Amino acid sequence: MLANDLAELDRAHLIHPVMSWRDHEARGPHVLASGEGAYLTDASGRTLLDGFSGLWCVNVGYGQRSVVAAATEQMMRLPYATGYFGYAAEPSIRLAARLAAHAPGDLDHVFFTLGGSDAIDSVVRFIRFYMHAQGTPERRHVISLARGYHGSSTTGAGITGLPAFHRDSDLPLPWQHHISNPYPYRNPAGPDAGAIVAASLAEFHAKVEEIGADKVAAFFCEPITGSGGIIVPPKGWLPAMREACRALGILFVADEVITGFGRTGPMFACEDEGIVPDMMTVAKGLTSGYVPMGAVLMSDAVYRAIRDGSPEGATIGHGLTYSAHPVSAAVGLAVMDLYEGGLLAQGRRVGAHLARRLSAFADHPLVGEVRGRGMLQGLELVTDKASKAKPDRALGIAGKLAAAGIENRLIFRAFADDMVGFAPPLCCTEDDIDILVARLEATLAAVLDDPEVRAAV
Ligand code: PMP
């Protein structure tokens, strides 16, 4: 089918996620045809470096034959097995055990979902079961970060703090609350780690007080805020929040949907600071996007409390038809083989190279800060470095950047009006990163050459 015909069909029928539908119809789709390693080829035959792993998910890169073979083999053998009524397929059992072995501390129990949003929904349901089992059902309120993203289901979009996900949706729900992100670059009192941690703790305690200490069930956060702007909390923030939650009997939920599976270096970003959450959500890198899958990892303590606190024989009424899907689990196992077989180590090595090379952009007139960890990096854009002025919305800098990126055969994520995000596949080599950096230089130069942008800086 001709690319133009496809574009027309797309405009007429395919609704795209998280976009202005009007803008999308005006621009039309960018149709991708195939991928190999870190490179994608589009319908017009142009090859682009995918600096964003699809949607921060294709951690192992495209075209991994062992992953495709695992899926094919499982589809032939047993394409579906329900987990209901006690049935299970071998890959699902093995993947649960493999995740438990890698996860920090006693996160030994795994409930599989189809992605991140229903993993967050599942956590919320498990929290309710847990609080009832503990005899504290009035603990139903949750607190999360104002720039946090936790999915697009009604529950998850409310736990998300970003206004675009609340608009016209009657969100957040009455039991969902938000506190500010620890945000060194824009912290009014400066980037001092101790001061930021203290301010966060004070805001958290004040929020708990306002809600009522015996009414708060859980605190949700990403170890590094992803979609809200790749905001890295200062060292010590994660353990301080984890301890504050423990002291108050509040469950600590780490959303590792983006940060999991080597994205920041270790298998899970919680390991960077040695914390063990009560529950953890994962997705994306779990199957590297080859097929959909997410999961909730639950501590032994929470699992036992729900198990033992439920009335004898009572059903724990939470399930998904495709929970622990055997094809997804087989893909997950093949992907885990790749991580363990050297890809995690490669991601750590190449991530250090990426961070080093990107740090040079801190001198660029449009760049306020370069930040991130490992293969998760971002550039925050400003039009005045001294005052840290954000680009005016009307400048449309995200759109200009994305377009210039495509011209230079580089895919990244231009988002939140002032962020350029990178999350390359872990299979990238140092040479791929050098190509990324050269293409980014050309992209930023083209945007700076735009007369409107020139006038604004
Ligand atoms: N949590 C986080 C931290 C995410 O980044 C995302 C997706 N970007 C989700 C949850 C939701 O995952 P999904 O899109 O797979 O439903």
Automatic annotation (TrEMBL):
Q: Which cofactors does it use?
A: pyridoxal 5'-phosphate
List, alphabetically, the InterPro entries matched. Answer: Aminotrans_3 (IPR005814), Aminotrans_3_PPA_site (IPR049704), PyrdxlP-dep_Trfase (IPR015424), PyrdxlP-dep_Trfase_major (IPR015421), PyrdxlP-dep_Trfase_small (IPR015422)
Which is one Pfam family of this protein?
A: Aminotran_3
The molecular function GO annotations come to: pyridoxal phosphate binding; transaminase activity
Q: Which GO terms describe its cellular component?
A: cytosol
Question: Which UniProt keyword terms apply here?
Answer: Aminotransferase, Pyridoxal phosphate, Transferase
Indicate whether Ribonucleoprotein appears among the record's keywords: no
Q: Say which family it is in.
A: Belongs to the class-III pyridoxal-phosphate-dependent aminotransferase family.
PANTHER family assigned:
AMINOTRANSFERASE (PTHR43094), AMINOTRANSFERASE CLASS-III (PTHR43094:SF1)
Question: What name does UniProt use for this protein?
Answer: Aminotransferase class III-fold pyridoxal phosphate-dependent enzyme
Q: Which organism is it from?
A: Lichenibacterium minor
